[in-house]
Sequence to fold (98 residues):
Amino acid sequence: MLATSMEVPRHAQLVQVQTTSNRGFTPEEIAARCADKIISVSDSAHPALREQAVAFKAAIHAVLVHYMKEAVASDRTTVYNALKDAGHPELAQLIGRL
Fold:
């Protein structure tokens, strides 16, 4: 029999909800959420380490935004081609202009 246990810190925020109105999330917003999950810095960290971690988090955020924007553009190309191949060139053009 396999038994496991996991302790969850009581101070950790386990659930977070974010919403938008009449739109999806931007690459910048998603990248910020992702960077928050990848890098966290303790409030009690040495100031020099904290500063370095914050700078690294900002760099990670910039990289994530760049590649998420590439992913969005690539997906739009895929949708454009699928619509065009399905015989909907006008709709494909509308997607291409986004």
